[in-house]
Amino acid sequence: MTNKTKKLIERWGKPDWYENPSLKAEWEKGSSLSGRDIVERFWSLTKAGEGGCILWNATKTPEGYGKFSISHGTKVAAHRWILQRKLGGAWDPALLVIHSCDTPSCVNTDHLRQGTPADNARDMQEKGRGVYSHGESHKNAKLTDEKVREIRKMYREGRKTYKRIGEMYGVSDHAIEEVVTRRTWKHVV
Ligand SMILES: [Zn+2]
Q1: pLDDT given for residue 123 in this prediction
Q2: Do 142 and 111 fall within a single domain?
Q3: For every one of its 189 residues, what pLDDT tens digit does the chain have, with 9 covering 90 and above?
Q4: Pair 149, 75 in one domain
Q5: Residue 187 lies in a domain
Q6: 76, 124, 65, 131: which is closest to 100 by C-alpha?
Q7: 46 CA distance to ligand 1 centroid (A)?
Q8: What angle do CA 6, 8, 14 make, to 5 degrees?
Q9: Are residues 120 and 98 in the same domain?
């Protein structure tokens, strides 16, 4: 075992494939790297988050989902890939992957499960995340009405970029753009 693997295991626990040859073969599928190398690379692109979340710390989609490069030129959704590796034969490619923690960049498989679009819609409504919700009532909202006003003002005055403002408030630059262009937080004047 390399030192790096040892460190990763100390940090994240033993990956399931470690003692299971069939899962190890699953890890290796679709990659030019060996199972061990690719899982090391996967976890090396993450960082610890709140509430047990393991957050993707590399390229993301505008929605905040991690993008993992499994071989030269092939990028996959990190959360889907990791759950598929864990589930092996039980993986159903037709289903969505639902985050119980409501954090798109999270790749902790304990926070992920497969479900239908209907399951996802129900889940979003229960958490107040769907079309019926807006603003502060969303339990995981990082922004408040007041912060939204500050953000719009800051942007209007040309002092900061979306990216810089996003860093200040702990949200993506995409989220800031949506706030500024009033695609979200429309109710705040
Ligand atoms: Zn999570």
Answers
A1: 76
A2: no
A3: 556 556 655 554 555 555 555 555 554 554 445 566 778 889 899 999 988 999 999 999 888 999 998 766 678 899 999 998 888 888 888 888 999 998 999 999 999 999 888 888 787 777 665 443 345 544 446 788 888 888 888 888 887 888 888 888 888 888 888 888 887 887 777
A4: no
A5: no
A6: 124
A7: 12
A8: 80
A9: yes
Ligand 1 centroid to residue 158 C-alpha, Å: 35
CA of 181 to the centre of ligand 1 (A): 29
170: in domain: yes
In angstroms, what is the span from residue 53 Cα to ligand 1's centroid?
4
Ligand 1 center from residue 110 Cα (angstroms): 8
Q: Supply the range of the domain harboring residue 60.
A: 3-126
Is the residue at 25 inside a domain?
Answer: yes
> Would you state the pLDDT for residue 63?
86
Give the count of domains, the chain. 2
Tell which of 106, 126, 146 closes a domain: 126
Both 153 and 97 in one domain: the answer is no
Query: Does residue 89 belong to any structural domain of this protein?
Result: yes
Please tell me the distance between residue 83's alpha carbon and the centre of ligand 1 in angstroms: 13
* Residue-level pLDDT at 133: 38
* pTM recorded for the entire structure: 0.52
CB 128 within 8 A of CB 136: no
CATH of the domain at 41: 3.90.75
Pairing of strands 54-56, 46-48: antiparallel
Distance 50 CA to ligand 1 centre (A): 8
Q: What distances in angstroms separate CA 162 from CA 115, 137, 146, 151, 174, one per listed residue?
A: 33, 24, 17, 9, 7
Query: Cα of 101 to ligand 1 centre, how many Å?
Result: 5
